[in-house]
Amino acid sequence: MHDEPLLIVSNRGPLQFARDASGERTARRGGGGLVTALAALAASHPVRWVASALTDEDAVVAGEGPWSEGNLSVRMVAHDAEQYDRYYNVFANPTLWFIQHYLWGLALAPDVDRNIRLAWDAGYVPVNLQMGEAAVAELRAIGGERPAVMVQDYQLYLVPEVLRSEVPDALISHFTHIPWPMPDYWRVLPADIRSAIHRSMLSADVVGLHRGRYVRNFLHCAMEFTDGEVDLRARAVRHPGGTTYVRHYPISVDPQEFHRIAAGPEVAALEPVMPSRPEKLILRVDRTDPSKNVVRGFRAFEVFLTDHPEWHGRASMLALLQPSRQDIPEYTEYMGAIQRAARQINDRFYTRDDWRAVDLRIVDDFHLAVAAYKDYDALMVNSIFDGMNLVAKEAPLVNERAGVLILSENAGAHAELGAFSVCVNPFDIQEQADAIHRALTMPEDERQRRIDGIRAHVERYDIDAWIEAQLADLGELRASVRV
Length: 483
What we know:
By secondary structure, this protein is α/β, with parallel strands linked by helices. It has helices spanning 33-39, 56-64, 81-100, 114-142, 159-166, 183-186, 191-201, 212-225, 255-262, 265-268, 294-307, 329-348, 366-373, 391-398, 414-417, 429-441, 444-460, 463-478, and strands at residues 6-10, 15-19, 25-29, 47-52, 67-69, 72-77, 148-152, 171-175, 206-209, 229-231, 236-239, 242-248, 280-287, 315-322, 358-362, 378-381, 404-408, 422-424. The two termini are 21 Å apart.
C-alpha cells in the first residue's frame, strides 16, 4: 500500500490557496484535525487529494486542474455557491451534525420541512455527486488493479456509491470522524434519506469509526435501514454488492510535533498565558460548538465555587474557545449562551482584587492553546458526545504541572484514556463540580501516575499507528476478491 498512489476525498483539503499583497499565489496548510492527520501521509507516500474549493483562489485552482508538489497532488472542486450553502450550512451542519451528536431536543426540533428536503435534494446530493465524479477521474488516472481511496467524514456519505458504480474494482474506505448514533436517532431523517446514506456506506469495503460502540451502532443501523445480512461477531455486513467490514480506528496525534511546538518561540512568546496566575488553573480548549458542553462546564465550576468557598480567589477557569460556524443560527445562539454564563458567574463571584472566576477568550490561536496546555492543573473535557476529542490527547503530552484530565464518558477518547482520567457524566453538573474538586486536591503521586499513563498510551498509539492500521486492513483486502 505504501508504493502506490492513495486517493483521499474530503470536504476540506490539505491546502488553501490565496493571493498575497504582491498578487502571488500562496498555499497554506488547511485547518482541522482531519487535514493534520492525513497530510502527514504525503511525507512518505504518493497522495492524490480531492477537496472542495473553499476560497476564491481555490476555485481558480479548480479550473486549472490538479495542483502538485512533491508527493502531493490536489484536485479542487468548485461548487455552485447556493448548492454548497444548502449542503454544508443546512444539511451537513447542523442537521447531520446534530443527529450524530444527539443534540436535537426532539420535542421542539428539528422540523423536517421543505428546507431540509431542498438541502438534501439540491445541496447534499449534487455536491456529493460532484465530489464523487472528481474522485472517479483521479482513480482512473491512478489506474492499476484495485486503486485505493479513503473518503472522509459526514459531509460525503454518498461518495462511496458513486465510486463503486463507476470504478467497481476500487478499494474503498470511508472514515467518519464523529459519533455514529443508534438507529432510533437516525429516524429523525425521512426513510429514503437515511436509507440512501446507509446504502451508500455499504458500497465501501471498510467503514471506519473511532470507537467500538460506534461500530455496534452502525451494524444495528445496517440491520434497520438496509437489506444487508449483519454478522455482529465478524463486524461485517454482507449484501448483494459484496461485504463491508466495519472497524474502529481511534485517531491520535503526533507527539513529537507537539513537543516541538511546545518548545518553540511562538509558544514561548505567549507565556505566561495568565500574568496573574491563580493557585490552581482549570483549562478548557474547545470550539463554540453545542456538542462541547461549555455552558454546563461553566455551571459545574459555579457549583464547585459554591460548594467550596475556600477556593475563591485561588482557582480560575480559563476557556480558550474557537468561534465555530457562526453563520448557522444554532451556533450563534450557543455562543451567546456561553458568554452569558461566563458573565453571570463572574458577576456572582466578583471581588475587588485581580481574581476572575472565568477567563473567557473567544480566540482562534493554536499557539496560545499549546501555551495553556503546558500550564493547567485540571483539563475539562466534558463534551456531550465527541467522535474522539484530540484535546484530551494533545494537552497531557506537554503539560508541566501533572495536570488531571476530567473526561466525559461520551467522548471518544474515554475508551482509551478513561482509566487515567476523572470520568464524568456530561449532563451531571454536580458530578463535574465534584470532579473539579477531586482533581485540584488529588495527591501529587496520583496526578503523576495518571498523566504518565496518558502519555505512554498516546505515544504508543500515535497518528502513524492510526494510519498504518487502516492501510494494513486495506492491504489485506487488496489481495482478496470483494465477496
